[in-house]
Amino acid sequence: MRKVSAAAIHLFLIMASVVSLFPFVWMLIGMTNSSSDIVKGKFSFGSELSTNINKLLDMTDLGGAFWNSAVIAVIGTVCTLILSSMAGFGFEIYRTKGKDRLFGILMLSMMMPFAAVMVPLFRMFSSMGMLNTPTAVILPTITTAFMIFFFMQNTKSFPRELLQAGRVDGLGEWRLFTHVYMPTMKPTYAAAAIITFMNYWNSFLWPLIALQTPDKKTLPLIVSSLASSYNPDYGMIMVAIVITTLPTVLIFFLLQKQFVQGMLGSVK
Amino acid sequence: MKKLLSVLLLVSMTASLLAACGSSKSSDSGQSGTGNEGGSASKKVVAWAWDPSFNGAALKIAEELYAKENPGFELEVVDMAKTDLEQKLNTNLASGVKEGLPDIILVNDPNIQKYVTAYPGTFADFTDKVDYSQFSPYKVDALTIDGKVYGVPFDIGVTGMFYRSDYLEQAGFKAEDLENITWDEYIEIGKVVKEKTGKYMSTINPNDEALTSILLQSGGSWYITPDNKGNFVDNPVMTETLRVYKAIADSGIAKPVTGWSEFVGSFNAGDVATVVSGVWQISSIMDAKDQSGKWRVAPIPRLNVEGAVNASNEGGSSWFVLEGSANKDLAIDFLAKTIGGSSEFYERFLKENGGVGSYIPSFSSEAYSQTPEFFGGQAIYTDFTKWSTEVPGISLGMYTQEAKDALKNELPNILNGSDLTQSLANIQKLFEQQVQ
Q1: What count of CB pairs under 8 Å joins A to B?
Q2: Which residues does UniProt call coiled coil (chain B) (predicted)?
């Protein structure tokens, strides 16, 4: 009985991984084929890789877009981690009046669709003269209710005794945060970093609106404009998508161990 | 590893901060053409378009022609996806922020009325700037709102029935058998083709309304009336369109596809005998180099209703100038003298990018009478331009997209055999709910 169910579970897992890995394999195969081979459904490696890469480099400022994306994602992630973890720490550790109510309001903000705030946000950034800068892309999501919640939940398992011990040893609150809390919570930071990096790296709608000149475009904007031409060159698009996907995959594998730990709860 | 990462982070942060500081300056100069305060000395205009190898390339040809007479003229084309362009334009217009808007913008024909009506005073009036009698009437109709003409007509999507002559010959049909037929005859031919060659006659995509749009316009009708009401109930052309649509699906001559790439793949792989589509489809058909010489084009089949013709349109776009642009006059002059009145422009646009316009004086040119080997030496562009003068002019109205969405919602039910009168009433109701 047990053997049967184990086999069934394995079968299910194998099928699930095939389904989720297929797009990646398809993407890698696609980047080596010509556009018409791809629409015909050819499923083997071809010899068009260098042609596709050259066409892509010819048509777009790929390096520039990569740099723009990296600037936004890296600075955005670092700022988000610092601010959200401070907020999560504060919400969980300190007892203050009205904390729950404040947190409730914060959670409510998660319900607001971004499309609803886009026009006012656009006006705001325009009046501040900040449109068309990486800052304009980073600021609106520099902390999110979800990230604060994520840190708060993980802080629940953080041993208060450590804080008390630190206070007895004469550490100030700031140093407690940076020297005791932050090192202990590494897995949480890693998990949060992956999620935030991915969000910034893939963000589309707001960068589309806030960035105005071609030299400021991020990678997703480039991919979107390539894919929309009347006669799309799928081989070239596949190369662009692979390049766009790589950094998130890399970061995930770098932080994989911590990510899993972070998702299970930071402190064992 | 950790140290390396943190050093990398630090370096990229400082560098990007510097880049961000420098960028505010460069963006100011980059937008000199788009700003809305003075600066009339500038000879640079900025345009938004959505396909660098098609409409972006067309602008480059126009720039070259214009710069010959006007030295120092400069054009910057910003390309982005069509839906992205619309999103950006809508956000800018809805928020009243002019910063970042271009001088020239490409608009999809079904969106023209919506923009001009929803944002009055935003687009420049072209009425006396271009000789519109030189363009196909149906194209000018799309640009005319309340007696004023906005923008310059650009590419058209006059339709044809592309077909594989080898498959049809195998099934026993000659070119004459495909000239000026009705859709019912088309289906009969399709059955024979399917039986004798095993190939499908066409594709059908229940999530796409391209075919119904083509059928409707060929009957001189549209999803909405000129005063923007739903045109589904008590519209004989609509009823006939959906009857034909269902008949094609039921007859088994159509290969079901779910998306654009599957559609293109079906004819690139040689699975179908005909493709009813806009003239711009030529480039994807010619992608299958191994099928050279096997393709021909015939007029599309006709609906069985009063006034229906063997010609229609799928897609097309036009150029607009923003009223608030600092370089409005320059931008108008540029468009009017090139895309709005130069035969040379259209000849080059066809030769270099395969784009077909509706500028009548260019139709007699050598470029339009070429006989590509791929189509067995047929003078396809001469044929297409002839058909383009037969396309019934219709008002695309303000809510084409909403009406198409309402129809798409009901198409699967129609294909499953629900009562057509009831379905049309449902579509009309859904449409009215959407535009309220």
Answers
A1: 120
A2: none
Share of chain B above pLDDT 70, in %: 90
Helix, strand and coil in chain A, % to nearest 5: 80, 0, 20
Decide if pLDDT at B386 tops 70: yes
Return the CATH number at B180.
3.40.190.10
| Mutation site for A-interface testing, chosen from B1, B5, B8, B12 by largest number of A Cβ within 10 Å | B12
SS3 B21: helix
Q: Does the residue A49 lie in any domain?
A: no
Decide if pLDDT at B20 tops 50: no
pLDDT digits (tens, 9 = 90+) for A37-63: 888 888 899 999 999 999 999 988 999
Asked if the Cβ–Cβ distance from B265 to A41 is below 8 Å, we say yes
- Global pTM reads 0.83
Same domain (yes/no): B204, B340: no
Residues B48 and B123 in one domain: yes
Domain housing B320: 44-157+315-362
Q: For residue range A91-121, what is the model confidence (pLDDT) as tens digits? A: 999 988 888 898 889 888 888 888 888 999 9
CA distance B269 to B251: 22
Distance CA B8, CA B19 (A): 16
Nearest one of A129, A128, A147 to A76, comparing CA atoms: A147
Taking 50 as the pLDDT cut, the residues of chain A under it are 268
Are the CB atoms for B156 and B139 separated by under 8 Å?
Answer: yes
ipTM of the complex: 0.84
B chain contacts of residue A213, beta-carbon cutoff 8 Å: 27, 30-31, 78
Contact: A126, B95; criterion CB under 8 Å: yes
Q: Are the Cβ atoms of A225 and B31 closer than 8 angstroms?
A: no
